[in-house]
Specification:
The protein has 120 residues and is an all-beta fold. It has no helices and eleven strands. It is elongated, with a radius of gyration of 14 Å.
Amino acid sequence: QVQLVESGGGLVQAGGSLRLSCAASGNTFSINVWGWYRQPPGEERELVAAITAGGNVDYADSVKGRFTISRDDARNVVYLQMNSLKPEDTAVYYCNAAGRTSDWAPWQFWGHGTQVTVSL
């Protein structure tokens, strides 16, 4: 079991910045991939950024150059630094931790989300 708690969301003006944090507890050594997802109002949840246990990162095209995902392994925390925010970034942001069993079956755990609202 892995528990994830997000923090750092809020209301920010367009062009501003926010840093989201995701604190993990439980069997954190089993996590292979950390991810940040978001779900805008009335839309489906989408992957924003991901970082693997080996340090590889990936971003959605819409946030490349503006968002940065990073880890603090000693504290079991993953961050999403969001710069140059746009109204289109408004969404509930979710932290995700994923891995695979010895049988290569995937598993994942989700946080409950934090609201990010970007005003004009």
